[in-house]
């Protein structure tokens, strides 16, 4: 699985908004500076997040962006889907829409299992979990293996 720069930036921007929730709306420039995200790129991401119902924008001198819902109710999967679409696709196609024959027939259940595990992790972690550095136990357990931190 590949996490795009767009998805990474979107999650980081959402986390910045979650951490600043009580401070009022944040300007895009402030989010960009705090997370080292190119400002123009972030503007497009924030617009997608607004259209997707994750953030609200407010105009004026005290304007900016804020989360549309509580950080506890927004999963990391929600953010990624709004800016990048489905979490797992094969050649741009969702796994249930694929079919294979012969020795490749077992690929479909493999892709479905992959999608299921990705969903379980990303849908099970909220912005609040990450912002508070309190990941769910199951997610933290996956990082306990030394092999999780190495690139084969």
TrEMBL record:
Source species of the chain: Streptomyces phaeochromogenes
The UniProt record lists the keyword Plastid: no
NCBIfam families: rrf2_super
Protein name: Rrf2 family transcriptional regulator
Keywords tagged on the record: DNA-binding
Pfam families: Rrf2
């Amino acid at each position: 699985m590949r996490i795009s720069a767009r998805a990474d930036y979107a999650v980081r921007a959402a986390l910045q908004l979650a951490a600043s929730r009580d401070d009022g709306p944040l300007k895009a420039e402030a989010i960009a500076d705090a997370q080292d995200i190119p400002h123009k790129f972030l503007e497009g991401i924030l617009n997608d997040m607004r259209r997707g119902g994750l953030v609200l924008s407010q105009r004026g001198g005290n304007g900016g962006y804020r989360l549309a819902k509580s950080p506890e109710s927004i999963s990391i999967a929600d953010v990624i889907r709004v800016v990048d679409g489905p979490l797992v696709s094969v050649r741009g196609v969702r796994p249930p829409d694929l079919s294979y024959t012969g020795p490749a027939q077992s690929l479909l259940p493999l892709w479905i299992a992959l999608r299921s595990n990705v969903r379980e992790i990303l849908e099970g972690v909220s912005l609040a979990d990450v912002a508070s550095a309190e990941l769910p136990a199951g997610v933290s357990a996956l990082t306990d293996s030394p092999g999780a931190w190495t690139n084969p």
